[in-house]
Every structure is written in structure tokens, then in C-alpha cells.
């Protein structure tokens, strides 16, 4: 599975920022699905469990992990996160469809430093279609070896919502999100076309303002974990 880096990724800036806002507001949240019978189809083998196992991951958390993917049929490797994105561990929000369904299930209740080997059936991976671009054939059972580095509150947490909701009226206005975008653009210092701000703002409201009232309510923002606002 390759050499596992011992360097722990920095965590200081991952609780906030433009990346979180875009993850939260530009990605349409996946609808919840009943999961008891489905979850039993994912086989989980814990390879290493730290003495201190806290916090445990849950839906909506922002995770940082390395993982390798193999075809169960012949053991060939089809993916290695250490060879992508300059070898940086992958950040994603758990349980919202940013990874295949099987990984969303397999990485629940996992703690920083934990390693797992999971087997995912085709129905919770790429199904009958497969994924040609990823060299995954139809009806393929997949095996992933995962090492989890960090569990953080995700972008749809109460904290993230309140950070944008400057007037604390429990809804996000175009002005509030526009100001948040400006602050984050200034913070990261990257050059962008002047139209980028307006395009992102419009896309955020297109994806999240379901009733078209010009605000993104807490319900539309889809805060996880039954948080109260």
C-alpha cells in the first residue's frame, strides 16, 4: 500500500475559509438514504486503532485522509491519493456524496490516526456502469486501505453558518455571503477575474435558495447533526 507519511497535516486553517464555503454552498447536499441493510454490505477491518480515539467521525464532518483503492478481483491498484494533488491527503465532507456511497459508510465512526481496510460491493461503488476513466470495470468490488488524519466540524455546521450570518437573523442574505466572499478572496490573495465574485454568488443562491426568497435559511443550508440554530 506504499509508505505512510508520518507528517500530520496542518489543521489550523481548516475550520473556516473559502474552501469550506464552496464545499458547503456550491455542492448540492445528498439526500439521506435508509442505511441499516446497506451498511451491512460494507466489510470493515480495523488495522490500527489509536489509544485515544476521539473525535469519531459523523455525517457532515470534514475529514482528511489518505487512501489507496484496489480491485478485489485481481488486487490491482486503481487509485492512490499520495500520487494526486502533490501527495496531500484528501479533504472531503463525510456523508454528502463527495465520495462513493461505500466510503461514506465505511468512514463513519472513525477517529484520527485510525487505519481501516474496507471492502465495498459494486452497488455502493460504481455499479453496473463501472468508471472507465478510473480504470474500474462494471460490477467491480473495491477494496480501500484508509488512514484518517483529521476530523473537523464540517462546512454545514452551526459554527460555519453563524460565521457568515453577521446579523444573527438565522438566514444568509446576498450581502452577507457577498461580504464573506470578498473577505476570503482578500485573505487567499489569488488573482481572479472581476466577474468571478458575481458568478460564484449567483451559483450559491441558485443551488441553495430553494424557495427563491433571496435568503438561504438554516433549513436550506442543511445544517447537519440536528444542530439547533
From TrEMBL:
Coiled-coil intervals: none
Catalytic activity: [protein]-peptidylproline (omega=180) = [protein]-peptidylproline (omega=0)
Keyword field: Calcium, Endoplasmic reticulum, Glycoprotein, Isomerase, Metal-binding, Repeat, Rotamase, Signal
Domain of life: Eukaryota
Cellular component aspect of the GO annotation: endoplasmic reticulum
Signal peptide segment: 1-32
Domain EF-hand: 152-187, 196-229
Chain ranges passing through the membrane: none
Chain ranges of the PPIase FKBP-type domain: 60-152
Pfam family, one: FKBP_C
Leading EC class: isomerase
EC number: 5.2.1.8
InterPro entries: EF-hand-dom_pair, EF_Hand_1_Ca_BS, EF_hand_dom, PPIase_dom_sf, PPIase_FKBP, PPIase_FKBP_dom
An example molecular function term from Gene Ontology annotations: peptidyl-prolyl cis-trans isomerase activity
Protein name as catalogued: peptidylprolyl isomerase
Species this chain originates from: Cephalopterus ornatus
Amino acid at each position: 500500500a506504499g509508505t505512510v507519511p508520518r507528517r500530520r497535516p496542518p489543521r489550523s486553517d481548516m475550520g473556516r475559509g473559502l474552501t469550506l464555503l464552496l464545499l458547503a454552498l456550491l455542492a448540492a447536499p445528498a439526500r439521506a438514504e435508509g442505511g441499516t441493510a446497506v451498511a451491512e454490505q460494507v466489510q470493515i477491518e480495523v488495522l490500527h486503532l489509536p489509544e485515544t480515539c476521539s473525535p469519531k467521525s459523523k455525517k457532515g464532518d470534514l475529514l482528511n485522509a489518505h487512501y489507496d483503492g484496489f480491485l478485489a478481483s485481481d488486487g490491482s491498484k486503481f487509485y492512490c491519493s499520495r500520487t494526486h494533488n502533490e501527495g496531500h491527503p484528501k479533504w472531503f465532507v463525510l456523508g454528502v456524496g463527495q465520495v462513493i456511497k461505500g466510503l461514506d459508510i465505511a468512514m463513519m465512526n472513525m477517529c484520527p490516526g485510525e487505519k481501516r481496510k474496507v471492502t465495498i460491493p459494486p452497488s455502493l461503488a460504481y455499479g453496473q456502469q463501472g468508471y472507465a476513466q478510473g480504470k474500474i470495470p462494471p460490477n467491480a468490488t473495491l477494496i480501500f486501505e484508509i488512514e484518517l488524519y483529521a476530523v473537523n466540524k464540517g462546512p454545514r455546521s452551526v459554527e460555519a453558518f453563524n460565521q457568515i450570518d453577521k446579523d444573527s437573523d438565522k438566514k444568509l442574505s446576498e450581502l452577507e455571503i457577498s461580504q464573506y466572499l470578498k473577505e476570503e478572496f482578500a485573505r487567499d490573495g489569488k488573482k481572479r477575474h472581476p466577474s468571478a465574485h458575481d458568478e460564484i454568488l449567483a451559483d450559491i443562491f441558485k443551488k441553495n435558495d430553494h424557495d427563491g426568497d433571496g435568503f438561504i435559511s438554516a433549513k436550506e443550508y442543511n445544517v447537519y447533526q440536528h444542530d439547533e440554530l
